[in-house]
Amino acid sequence: MTDYVLAQAAGGKAAFDPTMLIMLAAFGLLIFMMMRGRKKAAKAQEEIRSNLAPGAEVMTQFGLFGRIVSIDTEENKIVLEVSPGSNVTVHSQTVAKVVGSEAAAPVVEVPNDISSLTPAESVDSAEAAASESPEETLRRLNNEDNGPKA
User: Fold this and answer.
1) % of the chain beyond a pLDDT of 70
2) Are 90 and 60 in contact (CB under 8 A)?
3) What is the layout of strands, in order, in the sheet containing 86-91?
4) 6, 50, 79, 127: which could form a disulfide with 69 (CB 3.0–4.6 Å)?
5) Which range (33-37, 90-94, 102-106, 113-117) has the least confidence?
6) Distance (Å, rounded) from C-alpha 129 to C-alpha 125?
7) Considering only CA atoms, which of 29, 96, 22 is closest in space to residue 63?
8) Which residues contact 55 (CB under 8 A, 6 or more apart)?
9) pLDDT tens-digit profile of 48-61?
10) Measured between alpha carbons, how far is residue 82 from residues 45, 67, 77, 91 in Å?
């Protein structure tokens, strides 16, 4: 490469140098990748800002979770409720992501009694076992263990 520079400085014509072409292509690729990364980051930030509304649950860049109470677009401030009655004011650019829609878990109904979870005969035997005295339970269990052997 120094030969190419010296030849240009001397006024002579140098042969085609492929390393200069490779260096220019690599530099162009570097510039392209930097601009592409900035556009992706700006698009992601704009998507987050479009999802911001009072009532949405968000996480800030410093790990604070809260529900948006109000948004002041002129001052770029967001008021978050981090616990009932505790409000925090943060800059709008500190919001890292909206977690309200992701945090919603499906609701599973759990029955109040065990009868719907077990067969009917086992419920009857469980009720009978609960009504007998400890001595009767001990005798019944011993008889089941020492029952007829084949």
Assistant:
1) 65
2) yes
3) 86-91, 77-83, 65-72, 57-60, 95-98
4) 79
5) 102-106
6) 6
7) 96
8) 67, 68, 100
9) 888 888 888 999 99
10) 22, 7, 15, 15
Strands (E) in the chain, as ranges, are: 57-60, 65-72, 77-83, 86-91, 95-98
**Residue 93 and residue 107: Cα distance in Å, rounded?**
33
Tokens coding 52: 């911001």
- Distance (Å, rounded) from C-alpha 44 to C-alpha 137? 67
> Which ranges in 52-133 belong to alpha helices (H)?
100-103, 120-131
* pLDDT score for 6: 60
Give residue-wise pLDDT tens across range 96-127.
888 865 444 455 566 666 666 555 555 555 56
State both tokens at 37: 């990364």
- Of the candidates 47, 61, 54, 51, the one whose C-alpha atom is nearest the C-alpha of residue 87 is 54
143: confidence class by pLDDT, cuts 50, 70, 90: confident
Looking up tokens 């992701």, which residue turns up?
Answer: 102
- At residue 114, the pLDDT reads 63
